[in-house]
Amino acid sequence: MSTVKVTYVPAFDDNYIWFIHGLPEKYAQKQIIIVDPGDEQPVIQSIEHNQYDPQAIFITHHHGDHTGGVSALVDKYHLPVYGPAHEKIPNITHFLSEKQTVSLKSMGLSFNVIDVPGHTKGHIAYLGHQLLFIGDTLFAGGCGRLFEGTALQMHHSLSKLLELDDNTMVYCAHEYTQDNLVFALKVEPENERLKNRFDETVRLRQKSVATVPSTMALEKQTNPFLRFNIESVKLAAEGFARQSLDNPAEVFKTVRYWKDTLD
Ligand SMILES: [Zn+2]
Questions:
Q1: What separation in Å is there between the alpha carbon of 60 and the centre of ligand 1?
Q2: CA of 61 to the centre of ligand 1 (A)
Q3: 3-class secondary structure for the chain?
Q4: Which of 2, 92, 224, 235 could form a disulfide with 130 if both were Cys (CB 3.0 to 4.6 A apart)?
Q5: Residue-wise pLDDT tens digits, 238-259
Q6: pTM above 0.85, yes or no
Protein backbone atom coordinates (compact mmCIF):
# COMPACT_ATOMS: atom_id res chain seq x y z
CA MET A 1 0.00 0.00 0.00
CA SER A 2 1.10 3.48 -0.78
CA THR A 3 1.86 5.72 2.18
CA VAL A 4 0.85 8.78 0.19
CA LYS A 5 -2.51 10.30 1.07
CA VAL A 6 -4.80 11.20 -1.82
CA THR A 7 -8.09 13.08 -1.45
CA TYR A 8 -10.43 14.61 -4.01
CA VAL A 9 -13.05 17.19 -4.74
CA PRO A 10 -15.86 16.37 -7.17
CA ALA A 11 -16.46 18.70 -10.13
CA PHE A 12 -19.12 19.01 -12.80
CA ASP A 13 -21.32 15.89 -13.11
CA ASP A 14 -18.76 13.14 -12.67
CA ASN A 15 -15.18 14.51 -12.56
CA TYR A 16 -12.74 13.89 -9.74
CA ILE A 17 -10.02 16.46 -9.07
CA TRP A 18 -7.34 14.62 -7.07
CA PHE A 19 -5.15 16.13 -4.39
CA ILE A 20 -1.85 14.32 -3.75
CA HIS A 21 -0.62 15.09 -0.25
CA GLY A 22 2.98 15.36 0.91
CA LEU A 23 4.48 12.54 2.94
CA PRO A 24 3.68 12.58 6.67
CA GLU A 25 7.36 12.12 7.64
CA LYS A 26 8.08 15.36 5.82
CA TYR A 27 5.40 17.10 7.93
CA ALA A 28 3.99 18.15 4.57
CA GLN A 29 0.53 16.60 4.54
CA LYS A 30 -1.12 20.01 4.17
CA GLN A 31 0.90 20.48 1.00
CA ILE A 32 -0.95 19.26 -2.07
CA ILE A 33 -0.50 18.72 -5.79
CA ILE A 34 -3.74 19.40 -7.67
CA VAL A 35 -4.40 16.99 -10.55
CA ASP A 36 -6.49 18.14 -13.53
CA PRO A 37 -8.44 21.04 -12.01
CA GLY A 38 -11.23 21.49 -14.54
CA ASP A 39 -12.95 23.96 -12.21
CA GLU A 40 -11.25 26.23 -9.67
CA GLN A 41 -14.27 26.76 -7.40
CA PRO A 42 -14.41 23.41 -5.54
CA VAL A 43 -10.60 23.39 -5.36
CA ILE A 44 -10.37 26.82 -3.73
CA GLN A 45 -13.20 25.98 -1.33
CA SER A 46 -11.45 22.81 -0.21
CA ILE A 47 -8.06 24.52 0.12
CA GLU A 48 -9.55 27.26 2.30
CA HIS A 49 -11.68 24.91 4.36
CA ASN A 50 -8.79 22.50 5.06
CA GLN A 51 -5.99 25.10 5.09
CA TYR A 52 -4.11 23.21 2.42
CA ASP A 53 -0.92 24.62 0.98
CA PRO A 54 -0.95 23.98 -2.81
CA GLN A 55 2.46 23.36 -4.37
CA ALA A 56 1.83 22.42 -7.99
CA ILE A 57 -0.69 21.45 -10.65
CA PHE A 58 -0.40 18.27 -12.73
CA ILE A 59 -2.25 18.15 -16.07
CA THR A 60 -2.80 14.91 -18.00
CA HIS A 61 -4.33 16.33 -21.21
CA HIS A 62 -5.82 19.46 -22.71
CA HIS A 63 -9.60 18.91 -22.36
CA GLY A 64 -11.44 21.75 -20.65
CA ASP A 65 -12.85 19.60 -17.85
CA HIS A 66 -9.20 18.96 -16.81
CA THR A 67 -7.73 22.43 -17.39
CA GLY A 68 -10.55 24.97 -16.96
CA GLY A 69 -9.50 25.96 -13.43
CA VAL A 70 -5.77 26.27 -14.06
CA SER A 71 -5.45 29.99 -14.83
CA ALA A 72 -7.56 31.05 -11.83
CA LEU A 73 -5.51 28.78 -9.52
CA VAL A 74 -2.22 30.09 -10.94
CA ASP A 75 -3.38 33.69 -10.45
CA LYS A 76 -4.35 32.97 -6.85
CA TYR A 77 -1.56 30.65 -5.69
CA HIS A 78 1.32 31.22 -8.18
CA LEU A 79 1.83 27.51 -8.82
CA PRO A 80 4.12 25.70 -11.24
CA VAL A 81 2.04 23.78 -13.79
CA TYR A 82 3.28 20.44 -15.11
CA GLY A 83 1.70 19.12 -18.29
CA PRO A 84 2.13 17.29 -21.59
CA ALA A 85 4.86 18.58 -23.91
CA HIS A 86 2.88 17.71 -27.02
CA GLU A 87 -0.39 19.54 -26.35
CA LYS A 88 -1.22 23.25 -26.42
CA ILE A 89 -2.29 24.19 -22.90
CA PRO A 90 -1.99 27.71 -21.46
CA ASN A 91 -0.03 28.31 -18.22
CA ILE A 92 2.18 25.20 -18.39
CA THR A 93 5.61 25.91 -16.93
CA HIS A 94 7.09 22.39 -17.12
CA PHE A 95 6.61 20.42 -20.36
CA LEU A 96 6.70 16.66 -19.79
CA SER A 97 6.99 13.50 -21.82
CA GLU A 98 7.96 9.85 -21.33
CA LYS A 99 10.84 9.03 -18.99
CA GLN A 100 10.94 12.47 -17.37
CA THR A 101 10.58 12.69 -13.61
CA VAL A 102 8.82 15.32 -11.52
CA SER A 103 10.22 15.73 -8.00
CA LEU A 104 8.61 17.88 -5.33
CA LYS A 105 11.29 17.66 -2.70
CA SER A 106 9.55 19.51 0.13
CA MET A 107 6.67 17.01 -0.14
CA GLY A 108 8.92 13.97 -0.45
CA LEU A 109 7.21 13.04 -3.73
CA SER A 110 8.47 12.01 -7.12
CA PHE A 111 6.56 10.86 -10.23
CA ASN A 112 7.62 9.35 -13.53
CA VAL A 113 5.88 10.44 -16.70
CA ILE A 114 4.37 7.94 -19.16
CA ASP A 115 3.17 8.88 -22.64
CA VAL A 116 -0.31 7.40 -23.14
CA PRO A 117 -1.70 8.82 -26.42
CA GLY A 118 -5.09 7.72 -27.73
CA HIS A 119 -7.81 9.75 -25.99
CA THR A 120 -5.80 12.81 -27.01
CA LYS A 121 -2.56 12.87 -28.98
CA GLY A 122 -0.30 14.07 -26.19
CA HIS A 123 -1.97 12.55 -23.12
CA ILE A 124 0.46 11.73 -20.27
CA ALA A 125 0.15 9.89 -16.96
CA TYR A 126 1.98 10.31 -13.64
CA LEU A 127 3.29 7.23 -11.83
CA GLY A 128 4.92 7.22 -8.41
CA HIS A 129 4.58 5.74 -4.93
CA GLN A 130 2.39 2.97 -6.45
CA LEU A 131 -0.12 5.61 -7.58
CA LEU A 132 -1.13 6.16 -11.21
CA PHE A 133 -2.85 9.39 -12.27
CA ILE A 134 -4.15 8.39 -15.65
CA GLY A 135 -6.64 11.13 -16.62
CA ASP A 136 -9.03 9.87 -19.31
CA THR A 137 -6.88 7.06 -20.72
CA LEU A 138 -7.92 4.21 -18.43
CA PHE A 139 -11.15 4.28 -16.45
CA ALA A 140 -12.34 1.91 -13.76
CA GLY A 141 -13.74 -0.85 -15.95
CA GLY A 142 -13.26 1.11 -19.17
CA CYS A 143 -11.03 3.35 -21.26
CA GLY A 144 -11.22 6.80 -22.82
CA ARG A 145 -12.78 7.45 -26.20
CA LEU A 146 -10.43 7.88 -29.14
CA PHE A 147 -10.95 11.58 -29.81
CA GLU A 148 -7.57 12.25 -31.44
CA GLY A 149 -5.41 9.16 -31.46
CA THR A 150 -5.81 5.82 -33.19
CA ALA A 151 -6.89 2.48 -31.77
CA LEU A 152 -3.33 1.25 -32.36
CA GLN A 153 -1.89 4.11 -30.26
CA MET A 154 -4.38 3.44 -27.46
CA HIS A 155 -3.63 -0.27 -27.58
CA HIS A 156 0.06 0.53 -27.20
CA SER A 157 -0.64 2.93 -24.31
CA LEU A 158 -2.79 0.38 -22.48
CA SER A 159 -0.19 -2.34 -23.11
CA LYS A 160 2.30 -0.22 -21.17
CA LEU A 161 -0.14 -0.04 -18.26
CA LEU A 162 -0.43 -3.84 -18.24
CA GLU A 163 3.27 -3.90 -17.24
CA LEU A 164 2.56 -2.01 -14.03
CA ASP A 165 2.58 -3.69 -10.65
CA ASP A 166 -0.74 -5.22 -9.58
CA ASN A 167 -0.75 -3.09 -6.42
CA THR A 168 -0.69 0.18 -8.35
CA MET A 169 -3.66 2.35 -7.37
CA VAL A 170 -5.46 3.68 -10.46
CA TYR A 171 -6.79 7.23 -10.20
CA CYS A 172 -8.87 8.10 -13.24
CA ALA A 173 -10.71 11.39 -13.65
CA HIS A 174 -14.35 10.33 -13.96
CA GLU A 175 -16.93 8.26 -12.11
CA TYR A 176 -17.96 6.10 -15.08
CA THR A 177 -17.50 2.72 -13.42
CA GLN A 178 -21.05 1.39 -13.30
CA ASP A 179 -21.79 2.17 -16.97
CA ASN A 180 -18.43 0.72 -17.94
CA LEU A 181 -19.12 -2.52 -16.10
CA VAL A 182 -22.55 -2.88 -17.75
CA PHE A 183 -20.66 -2.99 -21.04
CA ALA A 184 -17.89 -5.22 -19.64
CA LEU A 185 -20.54 -7.79 -18.72
CA LYS A 186 -21.74 -7.84 -22.34
CA VAL A 187 -18.19 -8.81 -23.34
CA GLU A 188 -17.56 -11.28 -20.52
CA PRO A 189 -20.87 -12.42 -18.96
CA GLU A 190 -19.15 -15.42 -17.33
CA ASN A 191 -16.32 -13.50 -15.61
CA GLU A 192 -17.00 -14.12 -11.89
CA ARG A 193 -14.63 -11.40 -10.67
CA LEU A 194 -16.38 -8.95 -12.98
CA LYS A 195 -19.84 -9.96 -11.75
CA ASN A 196 -18.70 -9.39 -8.16
CA ARG A 197 -17.21 -6.05 -9.07
CA PHE A 198 -20.44 -4.95 -10.73
CA ASP A 199 -22.52 -5.88 -7.66
CA GLU A 200 -20.09 -4.07 -5.37
CA THR A 201 -20.10 -1.01 -7.65
CA VAL A 202 -23.90 -0.84 -7.66
CA ARG A 203 -23.89 -1.01 -3.85
CA LEU A 204 -21.35 1.81 -3.59
CA ARG A 205 -23.09 4.02 -6.14
CA GLN A 206 -26.45 3.64 -4.41
CA LYS A 207 -24.73 5.33 -1.46
CA SER A 208 -22.95 7.82 -3.79
CA VAL A 209 -19.56 6.44 -2.71
CA ALA A 210 -16.66 6.90 -5.15
CA THR A 211 -15.53 3.71 -6.91
CA VAL A 212 -12.18 5.28 -7.78
CA PRO A 213 -9.34 4.52 -7.15
CA SER A 214 -9.18 0.92 -8.24
CA THR A 215 -6.08 -1.26 -8.55
CA MET A 216 -4.22 -2.54 -11.58
CA ALA A 217 -4.95 -6.08 -10.37
CA LEU A 218 -8.69 -5.45 -10.48
CA GLU A 219 -8.48 -3.73 -13.87
CA LYS A 220 -6.44 -6.59 -15.32
CA GLN A 221 -9.10 -9.05 -14.10
CA THR A 222 -12.23 -7.14 -15.14
CA ASN A 223 -11.57 -4.31 -17.62
CA PRO A 224 -12.30 -5.53 -21.19
CA PHE A 225 -10.06 -2.80 -22.63
CA LEU A 226 -7.03 -4.34 -20.89
CA ARG A 227 -8.04 -7.93 -21.70
CA PHE A 228 -7.30 -8.03 -25.43
CA ASN A 229 -4.94 -10.96 -24.78
CA ILE A 230 -7.65 -13.04 -23.07
CA GLU A 231 -9.37 -15.74 -25.12
CA SER A 232 -12.93 -15.03 -23.89
CA VAL A 233 -12.60 -11.35 -24.86
CA LYS A 234 -11.16 -12.26 -28.26
CA LEU A 235 -14.08 -14.65 -28.90
CA ALA A 236 -16.65 -12.04 -27.85
CA ALA A 237 -15.03 -9.40 -30.10
CA GLU A 238 -15.01 -11.86 -33.00
CA GLY A 239 -18.68 -12.58 -32.36
CA PHE A 240 -19.45 -8.85 -32.52
CA ALA A 241 -17.30 -8.29 -35.63
CA ARG A 242 -18.48 -11.53 -37.33
CA GLN A 243 -14.93 -12.24 -38.41
CA SER A 244 -11.75 -13.64 -36.91
CA LEU A 245 -9.35 -11.11 -35.41
CA ASP A 246 -5.66 -11.64 -36.02
CA ASN A 247 -4.03 -9.88 -33.12
CA PRO A 248 -4.64 -8.22 -29.74
CA ALA A 249 -4.67 -4.71 -31.25
CA GLU A 250 -7.56 -5.74 -33.51
CA VAL A 251 -9.37 -7.21 -30.51
CA PHE A 252 -8.93 -3.92 -28.64
CA LYS A 253 -10.07 -1.87 -31.63
CA THR A 254 -13.19 -4.01 -31.99
CA VAL A 255 -14.12 -3.82 -28.31
CA ARG A 256 -13.67 -0.03 -28.39
CA TYR A 257 -15.85 0.23 -31.51
CA TRP A 258 -18.45 -2.09 -29.93
CA LYS A 259 -18.81 0.21 -26.92
CA ASP A 260 -18.92 3.32 -29.14
CA THR A 261 -21.90 1.87 -31.00
CA LEU A 262 -23.78 1.65 -27.68
CA ASP A 263 -22.89 5.02 -26.11
ZN1 LIG B 1 -10.61 14.04 -21.82
A1: 9
A2: 7
A3: CCCCCEEEEEECCCEEEEEEECCHHHCCCCEEEEECCCCHHHHHHHHHHHCCEEEEEECCCCCHHHHCCHHHHHHHHCCCEEEECCCCCCCCCEEECCCCEEEEHHHCEEEEEEECCCCCCCCEEEEECCEEEEECCEECCEECCCCCCCHHHHHHHHHHHHCCCCCCEEEECECCHHHHHHHHHHHCCCCHHHHHHHHHHHHHHHCCCCCCCEEHHHHHHHCHHHCCCCHHHHHHHHHHHCCCCCCHHHHHHHHHHHHHHHC
A4: 2
A5: 999 999 999 999 999 999 999 9
A6: yes
